[in-house]
Amino acid sequence: MNGLRSARHPKSRKKITAGGIIISVILVLWSLIQVFPLYWMLTFSLKENAEIFGKNVIGLPIKWLWSNYTTALQSGNMFKYLLNSGIVTAATIAITVVAATAATYALTRMVWRGRKTVNSLFMLGITIPINAVILPVFLILSKMHITNYWALIIPYSAFALSMAVLISSSFMQGIPKELEEAACLDGCNIYSIFWHVILPLMRPALATLSIFIFLQSWNELMYAVIFISDSRYRTITVGIQNLSGSFTTDWGPIGAALVVATFPVLIIYAFFSSKIQESLVAGAIKG
Amino acid sequence: MDKTMKNKTAILLFLLPACILFIGIIIVPILMSGYYSLLDWDGITASKFVGFDNYIQIFTKKSIAFPDSAKNAFILAGLSVFIQLPISLGLALVLAKGIKGEKLFTAVFFIPVIISTTVIGQLWLKIYNPNYGIVNMALKAVGLESLSHTWLGDEKTALFAVFIPILWQYVGYHMLLMYTGIKSQPTDLREAAMIDGANEWQIARYITIPLLKPVLQVCAIFAVTGSLKAFDLIYILTNGGPAHASEVPATIMIKQLFLRNNYGVGSAIAVFIVFICFFFAILIKKVFRTEVD
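^ inputs. structure came back:
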């Protein structure tokens, strides 16, 4: 495309490079704006206060203070919170994926009256802000004496459901019906068609779904603050809030905790960046 | 085949988990919120039906500070649409032209989107720290110490200081939506215009952006409804303070519900948030539709 352009317009080539320089400068500047706070966070997680507060504000640490990390992990209880977030997130992904794909199968493939209505009801769920139901959900869960991980897993799954149905139905519509017909002729029943034919074909969509749900539940704060009063079940977002309250003057451990909380997300991003981008775009554009 | 696909038991079983979750945690609670908003109730003593009294209260009672919070939410929405989205659009247009390092820039701009808002909030608390934060440090370093400020603690700057991290975190998200939208456009129109001698600006103005309208509509809806229901960053950075200067409906709602046990008033605000989000989503769709015609 570039080659074509310059072949047709030999003169325009120079102009493009001149503008190109300005554009590159802007892009690099904006990248700095986006990355610098994160770089600062990473470096101050390894510094002592004296460096952070004036001696060495933006440079790499002079003295690499790894003990900030041990402080955050031990007295900040970060391991426990990471584990809790992991449990909540994994369970939310499992429940939402099963519930959403099964429902989507009934909604897109099976034949029954009222499926259009049910489908649009699910789609309505996308536009409902989750903070609008926080009190009733809180009262329902506490009436049922659900105060542990489930107090988060259940609402997170419900809130992810609409989007999950949306993403999987747009994918399922692309699966040719012939495969199910063949399986049907071979004597498969509906459950094994779903389990052995549809689900394996859905694998790319399942990855997209899982990433979408992961980011949503790993990062959620409002419900996590209000629903979990027992510190044993506290998730990482609330853990950080508490830690920063107890280490107000000591910045290093807070920085370390922030880095620890971000690390799992960044690792996943490093491996699946295009998949992650795709899943967040899928959620938006089709909505 | 037809018989298999009409299997009533199977349909019911497939739908059951999703329906239980959806009805139990979304549909029924929405209705409950609506009902609670008509009650005078603290969750402990008996509730009293008061009709629309809570709605009158949130708009008239000064101590709740609700009208201010709604105004702040509208300001945030305006800033998002008129500052954040243009930046995103500019970046998307440039990146989608296929420059060197396109993939890397996209990936970098997108990093803040995936990081937890809690981390971002705590990080910006440090950035804004009046004594040791990098904003004031940088001002000091270039000799503008007189401009340094308690950014989050001053009524005049708090709301704007809260907006900057929101902008910073989500520019990449809108950029990616627009970038993907531009990438999926057919290139022949743009090429034809280029051959006819149109410059980059004209191509963007008359071809790329008009074709991008559906995506821009989604971005506008996200930016506006996102601002109207905003909570996390504001809760962490200021929790609505100082003196309600950065309050938004969601922070007031949480305070009324869980600090004051004012379930009726809190639920009225919840219902307000739902309606205002729906209203603006529909309004934006209307605006874009008439634009297209």
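Chain A touches chain B through 98 residues (CB under 8 Å). Residues 141 and 151 of chain A are 7 Å apart (CA to CA).
thumbs up if we can close this ticket
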